[in-house]
Amino acid sequence: MKFARCASGRSRIIAVEGSYHGLSMGALSITHSGNFREGFGPFLPDVSFVKHNDIEDLERHLKKKDVGAFIIELVQGKGVKIVADDYIKAARELCRKYGTLFISDEVQTGMGRTGKLFAYQHWDLDPDIITMAKALSGGYVPAAGFVTRREIYQKVYSRLDRCVVHSTTFGRNNLAMACGLATLNILEEEKLMENAAFRGEQLLNRLRGLQAKHDIIKEVRGKGLMLAIEFKEPASLKLKVAWKAIHAVDKGLFAQMIVTPLLQKHRILAQVAGHNMDVVKILPPLIIGDKEIDHFIHALDDAIQSIATFPGPVWDFGTNLVKAALKNGYASAGR
Known about the structure:
The chain is of the alpha/beta class. The chain contains 12 helices and 10 strands.
């Protein structure tokens, strides 16, 4: 954000609804979720949010020619929502047309996660700034960085006395740099990006098989090994009542009823994809193979079948979640 503002001479930043870019004050200002923002305002001025995959909404902001940067996750971390092909290509052209820098947030999608080194490569984009972190060091030590065009860099460090305008205490950490180089080498030598692309398609196909089997699955989606399973209200009248009761208390509890047995019974780590979502997110290691995929599909199938048993242990667990939520004051009207 600092580099974009300095290089463009414009203060406005545009982000996307549903975005997550971090929790420090600057990053939180362009993070859309109210759950993360609550209690920390006021935020940085001149930040606006546009609708996901809505090109008209984006152009309405950009055509004022006061936007320094448009920042986007090509696959959103919260909910695993993927940009539409026609939208993102048009968005990149609009940024060029109106002089706005295009920032691809690759903190989650980078380092082979989506089947390419960076997600923007799926659409042949050319971002002005790319952010990266998380897997950059292979998870061994904290590491993060960004890549930008030379002309942007030189506008920020434009004079000798400006050589210290942006730095960080732990920048250029030798251990982090060594781990980063090793990670990049392993990604290439062991063809982990290719494996992520292949195994991601394999997982999507297997998950679609489960979707055909279980009417409670609304959609499966993903890019490479960044995938989501979204659930919907079941057809069974008995299960409808239980579904509505859970959601009346907290719209985010149902996904917990999936990820908890996955961990407790099958030793699989999955995530609730975001607040108030019936979405489970999976981020398998890039070395995943047939054996691990078979185990996951069997485990998810088992967890969903347990949901179909009402009353049953999974719904008992859901009831306990409800009681805990009510005890702590997390009624749906408030949180």
